[in-house]
Amino acid sequence: MKTRTTVIASTATLLLSTLLMSGNASAAQQCANLVFKSQGTQAHGAFYRAKKRRAERRAKRQWKYDVARTPTLGSRYADLDNAKNVVINCHLKNSDLSMSCTVVAQPCTDD
Question: Model pTM?
Fold first, then answer.
């Protein structure tokens, strides 16, 4: 009976500490008052999925570069994983079957 109470108490303590730690991490995030829109260079290729993946990668890279070179933000805000309201739009150009993507997001820090 005593060991069951100890297990329950230690489990409750572990859950409570996990909740407190996760709450503190999200409260420290700071977001810029700007929304950046960046378009990557066109991607060419025979396969749709590969072309889309390449176009998205180029647009994300361009967004990171645009945010990092902004003097008021810098590289702290240039992580797209921390950004809010991320929207990626891709479109296929009919004339030469190239694809380009646009990333729109609000940059944020994780600290």
Answer: 0.72
